[in-house]
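Database export, one record per block. Field names are fixed; values are copied verbatim from the stored entry.
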Amino acid sequence: MLINRNYTSQPQYENCTHIIKVPLVEYQTLSVDTRNLLLNSRLQATLMWTDPGLTWNTSVYHYDQVVLPVEKVWTPEIHVTNGIRTRMHQYSNDLLLFSNGTLVHTVIIMAEVNCEVNLFNYPFAEDACPVAIQTWAVAGCGTSLRLGNLKMIDSSHGDWETLGVSFEKQSEDQNYIWVLLRIKHFNPFITLMFPTILIVLADVVSFSLPLGGGERNTFKVTLVLSHTMLLTILNEKLPGDSQCSPIIRLHFCICLVLLFLSMLVSLVLTRVAKEGSIIFCCCPKKNATKSTGNKKEDTEAKGDISVIKLNGPEEENQMLQRVVKILQSFENKELENEKYQNRANAIDKAFFWLYFVCSTLYFCSMLTVMRTYECTVNHFNFWD
């Protein structure tokens, strides 16, 4: 008898607005796509509404409640306003109908929500995301929700965890579930933040290597390449841009600048230790001529030492003078090299302390900003 009535449209008697009671909604966060800023949720809602056309007289039909197929009666639909993709399907193919016309039905909603999560403090990000729910209504006609209890289940998935959920509303017909989210900072901190600290620390310790020989320069180039590889990993995890862009991008950029600057200073000091100057192309010709003359003189002196036979005191004095000149030349060269090395070491030590202090202050400041600064995001621009 009830099926034959064929009530498959919304009940409307006194007016064209029908109230749908939702005594219980079970919310579950399935996943959070950090790169694309998407929140995947599952909602299981129990719906109750009254259809006077489906009542019966219990004195005639001695049943207080019956089970009806879902497709034979009208059932309300719930939409997620800010959902990119939303699928609602029936929890069961049947629903429960009481003799007074009250129907009880359960639906499951799978929603993918475009959620502009505040990632400024990544990997210490914590923010909230609205899941706006509504029913069909046009020009004052349709359905209206009366929300009851909200229950959260299975709060942890992947790198994110759900801290809590609550029913909120912007206006009388704008209801939403306010989902509090927080990233589990241990994994991204270990994989992204901590390696940058270690790389900069290794760069600071590399100042203990000698300037000569090229070991320090090779090591610093390796550190720069390692940090560049970390940048690639960061780009795969975080979105291209958002209202509050992650400050960890700026952190990686500053660390790369520090490493590159340290490498350049090391290269320049290597030249200073060897040549005593940072001038690369302008070398005085006088020094070059003098050096060439000294080489010729040394060669002649060496040749003279090897072939000259001493025949008298005068020749012996001349030979001794040449030997003294050669020894003085070697000594002057060693003193000059030592002077260059001392100059380079002094500059290197001063730069080391400056680099160490600046790096320490920078990391302390950056971690403080990541933990304390708050960036504001408009989560309701889909309604605006």
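Remark 1: The chain has a mean pLDDT of 83.
Remark 2: The radius of gyration is 40 Å.
End of record.
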